[in-house]
Amino acid sequence: MSVLFPAGPPDGAPREVCSAKGCRTPAGYALLWNNPKLHTPERRKTWLACEEHREQLSSFLGIRGFLKDVVPVEDLRQQT
Fold it and tell me: 20 to 30 A from 19, CA-CA: which of 42, 44, 47, 66?
């Protein structure tokens, strides 16, 4: 099971790809976040990031106080 493709990826597609606009690079990191105005404290939304966009996406979420954790994508795979 994949965060991006709950039923599995289409044939030949990477399992998880970066969430940065226009990036199709396989993701190495999961950015776990929530918006406290919209979500309960325990809820975690997920953005995926490649090495190149990890800091940019983390900063975007962090400035807003949304970023809760950054973990390797492999950790998400082990949870499912």
Answer: 42
The answer on pLDDT for 36 being more than 50 is yes
Signed CA dihedral, 33, 36, 38, 39: sign only = positive
Residues 46 and 3 sit within 8 Å (Cβ to Cβ): yes
Taking alpha carbons only, the member of 9, 16, 14 closest to residue 47 is: 16
pTM (2 d.p.): 0.78
Strand pairing partners for 49? 29
| Pairing between β-strand 29-33 and β-strand 45-49 as defined by DSSP bridges | antiparallel
Strands 45-49 and 67-72: unpaired
Read out DSSP for 24-39?
-SBP-EEEEE--TTTS
